[in-house]
Design goal:
Blueprint (H helix, E strand, L loop, with lengths): L5 E4 L4 H12 L5 E4 L5 H9 L6 E4 L2 E4 L1 H11 L10 H17 L1 H12 L3 H8 L5 H21 L4 H21 L13 H9 L1 H4 L17 H9 L2 H12 L16
Parallel strand pairs: 1-2
Antiparallel strand pairs: 1-3, 3-4
Length: 261
């Protein structure tokens, strides 16, 4: 009997949520190893040579990047499908996946960090949910030094925040142009396009079905981001996609408590 797939991930990350959702949607039983935000690049480099997560160990192969992970899952576990059977619809769905990954994901992340960074407790609760009292106190003490490093790492200043809001509005316009009467972006069923957009919007929207703690749900600090999304119907749409399709977890429960430094 082969070993189950292992997903190395960050609990709060929207790109990691994209891979988790695909595993759960397809019912692929797997183990999860949660990494510590900020320390995760070391382990990711050991696995793939790159500093980013998610990383999936699958059938003896180590796969980085959420798009590549989902492509591998679609190949090995085609049912239920995330790629449309129709060639034109499949091309469109994959194009939208790429657009959202490149033109939404980094900018949504920047806005979330920008609005949460002033609140030390909210940041620690959202991005380090596994920390116990001792680690939380250590992070509280260090946060004054961590905050400017994060601003530099994610290129956060007045100009880049304005750019990020513009990207959010571009996504809203693209959504309005693409969404059909069914509520889905491609055809009349849930596809990789819908999963990608909903997962990447999960941090500001904080849907109830998100599998890990979200102390920032409905928090006023993220209201400016939610307000822009709401202009285009994206808050309600994201919550609807989660309610419809973010079902039972396929994580192996015996591995649920595993955590990696």
């Amino acid at each position: 009997m082969s070993a189950p797939p292992v997903l190395w991930h960050l609990k709060a990350s929207h790109y990691n949520e994209k891979a988790r959702w695909a595993l759960d949607f397809k019912g692929v039983a797997h183990e999860r190893r949660a990494l510590v935000a900020g320390l995760h690049p070391r382990k990711a480099r050991q696995l793939t040579g790159e500093p980013t997560t998610p990383v999936l160990e699958l059938d003896g192969e180590t796969i980085g990047d959420s798009t590549r992970i989902i492509a591998a899952l679609e190949d090995r576990h085609p049912d239920p499908p995330l790629y449309p059977a129709d060639a034109d619809e499949r091309r469109r769905a994959l194009e939208l996946e790429d657009v959202f990954d490149e033109e939404l994901g980094p900018y949504c992340r920047r806005l979330v960090f920008h609005h949460l960074l002033p609140d030390r407790e909210l940041m620690i609760g959202a991005f380090m949910p596994d920390f116990g009292p001792v680690r939380r106190n250590m992070m509280r003490a260090a946060f004054g030094a961590v905050r400017p490093r994060l601003r530099k790492e994610f290129d956060i200043d007045d100009d880049t925040v304005e750019q990020a809001f513009a990207k959010l509005r571009e996504t809203g316009e693209r959504f309005r142009a693409e969404v059909g009467p069914s509520g889905y972006l491609v055809g009349d069923r849930f596809t990789i396009a819908d999963l990608t957009l909903a997962a990447l919007l999960a941090p500001p929207v904080a849907p109830e079905q998100f599998p890990y703690p979200q102390p920032h749900r409905d928090h006023p600090r993220l209201a400016p981001v939610r307000d822009v999304l709401a202009e285009y119907g994206l808050v309600d749409w994201t919550r609807e996609m989660y309610a419809r399709h973010r079902g039972t977890s396929a994580e192996l429960r015996s591995a649920a408590a595993r955590w990696a430094p």
